[in-house]
Amino acid sequence: MGMHRFRELKIGQRRMDLAENVYRVVAGFPTEEKYGLTPQLKRCAVSVPANISEGAGRPTNKQFKFFLEVAMDSCNEVQTQIELAQRFGYVQPEQARY
Description:
The protein has 98 residues and is mostly helical. Helix content is 65%, strand content 0%. It has three helices and no strands.
């Protein structure tokens, strides 16, 4: 296929929502997480749409797949960090549903 139109993919439509929701959630984190969980979560969340977009611009499906895998790895990181934030009492269960 090559040169995918990521905005037309279902995953492309939700990629920005994830990052936006993470930014909203971490805004309520305590200040002691300013250099800990907060920036790490932001980086992972932004990595998801960035890698999907970058992969969509690659000329082969193999390259696109690689970037989708990297984006999925970042999603897994976000999920783990949100679970930790829940354990620390920073995130309520309803905030973590995405």
